[in-house]
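Journal club side-thread
Mid-discussion, someone asked how the predicted structure for our own chain would compare to the paper's figures. Pasting it here so we can look after the session.
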Amino acid sequence: MKVAFEKYGKGMPIVLLHAFPLSRKMWKQQINVLVESDCYVILPDFRGFGETQIASDKTTMEDLANDIRELLDHLEIEKAIIGGLSMGGYVTLNLYRLHPEKFAAMILADTSSLADTEEKRLGRFSLIEKTLTHGMNAIIEEMLPHLTSDYTKACNPDLIKQLEKEFLQTDPEGAIAALRGMAERLDHTDMLPEISVPTLLIFGREDKVTNLDGARLLNNKIPNSKLEIIEDIGH
């Protein structure tokens, strides 16, 4: 699978995996500070997002994890700090299950080790049907209001506009394929005590998608983990 990506800087490799339904562009504000901290930053686009082509009508989290492993091999990177936000976190956990040797450390941001409940799974299939009819506008209407906190809505309206613009740039077929894959993803909770690398957990206190109960579950079960909660911030 040919994965579009960008790379910056030199030093310790750090791979950041984007959220649904965005692309590698979501990390642009983190690039400079990481490069200045002597990091070699790698930012890939998942299948069906950004500049990476969709491969099938269902994109599993295992597919995406193996794409990242192949990208690391292509770049001749033996180990990296690997982390992701939301869907990017699902991929990170799948990658650790499949290829733990590629991790020097892990970052999990506003994500969950749990599989979808039946209610959430049905919600994803309902959103697929709406997206088939209305395109990315359906995802904007159903998801975007829940992704940002009241503080962000009041103090950073430009961010809301930018997110809406980036949602609209996403291929609906890529989004639908990923929704199908997320609905069928595995539960990784039993694996958490086996994570042997340092793990940073980053969660917004006002997150309405994942929550602090899930954050504390990760923190309690991953042996060498640290939880950082960002005040006034959502997903």
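Post-session note: Residues 135 and 172 are 6 Å apart (CA to CA).
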